[in-house]
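Budget justification, computational time. The allocation requested in the original proposal was used primarily to generate structure tokens for proteins on the priority list. As evidence of use, we reproduce two of the resulting records. The first is shown immediately below.
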Amino acid sequence: MALEPEQIPSRTCGCPDCIIDYPPHLYGDRPPQGVCHGMWQVRWRDADRRQRLKNLPTLADARGFLADVRRRSAA
């Protein structure tokens, strides 16, 4: 039904993963960071089996939202 939240790369982040996805020579220099500052994406299928997604600012928000989706679908 629902997967775990996934982090979305950000053009403004300076972590190694985001630097690979958004190289500085195309998207501008930014200070290196050890932790990614990208949004978190939650994907799930609703009762009609349509795929849905929602972007949230923190991992805690994404996990909380996903727990709520799972709770609603189990009821």
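The second record produced under the same allocation is shown here.
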Amino acid sequence: MPLKIANIGAPQLLEWNDGIEQAERAIEMIDAHALAIHLNFLQEVIQPEGERNARGCVDKIKEMAAVLTTPVIIKETGAGISQKTMEKLMDSDIVGVDVGGAGGTSFAAVEKYRAKRRGDRIQEELGDIFWKWGIPTPYSLMEIAEMCHDAGMTVIATGGIRHGLDVAKALALGADAAGVATAFLTCDSLEEKMEVFLASLKAAMFLTGSATLEELREVELWTW
């Protein structure tokens, strides 16, 4: 069954007086199963028109999660989520986190090109400087997966997931699920690409002696 997640920005919630109503409208528009509040402060810093106020962000997220009847998750958009950030949200009602780590789409890069089209050379150069800013997805998972699971939260890995081996790595590092964009959006055949994902995930499971996804999550990890 498709999982529909509505999306709204934390920086915008801080600016709106009717944040609850806006969130409920976003949920209603797609009959969403959950609402994601995204933490895109890197993007906002590079955007010529970006909203750079972060004061009160944690309290606003907690308020939204407590009031809304639809489950709320938080997500990053390419800069990853740190242990320090998650510690601030441990006593909230959020049910999950999408790490959105570095390694996939860089919204600093996206905003760099937007600034270039506008002739804003300062923001364009800022985008260059912060193009690769962020916590890579594997490191973000290693920092927060265990504490999130202890709190009963679901962990989603996004950011640089290119094939089934990346999915396997994410699951082994503590993710409950993985999300993909670029690999599916740029392929010639979506059906073939999905088959490659499945085949490479199965291959990773076979090579690690994992008969189930649960066993894959328990494999011994090595770093070099």
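A brief technical remark on that second record: Residues 5-216 form a domain with the TIM Barrel fold (CATH 3.20.20.70).
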